[in-house]
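hey can u run this one w/ zinc ion bound, need the structure tokens asap thx
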Amino acid sequence: MNEKMAMPGDELATSEEYMPGQGTYESNGTIFAAVMGKPVFNESEKTVQVLEIKIVSALKPGDIILGEVSNVSNSLANVIVSGVEDSVKRVGFNEMGVIHVSKITEAYTDDARKEYRTGDLVRARVLQARPSLQLSSKEPELGVLKARCSRCRIQMVNKSGKLYCNECENNEHRKLASDFGKFTPGYTEA
Ligand SMILES: [Zn+2]
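ok here u go:
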């Protein structure tokens, strides 16, 4: 594919040359792409539009994904999915999923922030792919695979079920996957 894709915010033309069409907007005499897609210039009508390309999730319930925790609130951990484990399947780039607090561990937890922190690499199972990506880490092999110390950001090690930082001697808790620390990526990057 040689045709150039436009990303939201890309400059397409000036409003002297073309009229802004669907998928574009005009600001201060410049026409920008409003969506990701293929720019189409109509020379007879002097319009420019962007035909939107929507990334459809290739994930389905039951899939095991790998991703990074982007932020955590009391009730949710947001995960940016980077790939599907043991599969050649491709997923939408930077697809965002959530793990609800009730879907984090087999045991009861009342706060997602006690189990996950921003930057954790996690393995999770897809519960629902559409309309929103819902994930679970309730099984022993699911949860955190790599975690950094929240004080000094170095990789923490598993010391009898607790995470320990060799640098600052900090102890932290996570919902750990059973192979925490032994994990090597065996998946296709999105
Ligand atoms: Zn530390």
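The first strand starts at residue 11 and ends at 14. anyway lmk if its weird
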